[in-house]
Amino acid sequence: MEQSYESISWQDDHLVILDQTQLPLREIYSEVHTIGQVWDAIKKLKVRGAPAIGIAGAYGLYLGVRELDSKNFTSFNVELNRWIEYLKTSRPTAVNLSWALDRISQTVYANKDKELDEIKEIILETAKTIHDEDKRVCKKIGHNGAELVKKGSHILTHCNTGGLATGAFGTAFSVIWHANDSGKDIHVWVDETRPLLQGARLTTWELQNAEIPFHLIPDSAAGSLMQSGKVDLIIVGADRVTANGDTANKIGTYPLAVLAKENEIPFYVALPVSTFDLSTEKGDDIEIEERDPEEVTFLAKTQITPKKTDAYNPAFDVTPHEYITGFITENGLIEPDFKKNIKALFD
Length: 347
Ligand code: MRU
Fold this sequence. Notes:
single chain; 7-stranded mixed sheet; binds 5-S-methyl-1-O-phosphono-5-thio-D-ribulose
């Protein structure tokens, strides 16, 4: 069985994204023609999830540079780096965005003696490669993770980590998808994931499409379900994992990990190797995106608080590595000692 939708696709000379702010009520595919529109789509979460924003950013960079009429490589490279820094300002926490943009920058430099038109085409080809690689990597993550899932497991997940958040299939969601596909008879507990409800709006939509049994739960119910033996394992995605294994993911992940340890429930993080950030030593060093307070005080455009209520809205939290059972990657399962074993992935 294949996925019936693509969160991002390149068509002729532009990008098409499935607008995730409109799901699940409306399936709207929007055309994106400029780098500014890509920046806006990432900022507003029309395209979201760490690998997906890396892919969109890569195409966005091409949309920016194709307009340049630089006379030589030096001035082209200055403009390229300006666009890279601009795209990076859209969302700071997920490392996949800067990973994809820096990869393109290195590829450009390696081809600096070519004609500028040829370099522009190389940028587009690199964006397509990043996109295709992610689809293959996500499948592998799913296969590797499904081996850890016992028959009849109740799996709890947080936020959205599916095909919407990646090139295809997802990370944690790919594990769930492949476990279900191999007849493991699983059931999923879906955290609604306040404030933007990626679980309630997007993960449920993807589970329904894939005909995987699930129940949606309020975020605040997760601890009690663990305590009463209703959760066999937890699998989440990641936005950035530092050299020691500390993991930034959607706000609300850290309390799940702490309660999993308390209740002796395995807690796995599924991610592509590109989400590891060896240049950042530990979780305290990760920049956490703070979003508009109105995402908390409003629900579907209706204010749910007294007027002038101030809110604090961090988009991610950091789970210290000691709460993590293992990392499920395309290269297999990474277990403690995380610092040593994560480094080995890059040796
Ligand atoms: O703010 P979002 O919706 O982009 O947050 C997404 C997450 O936290 C995901 O868990 C993470 O990016 C992994 S997606 C495969």
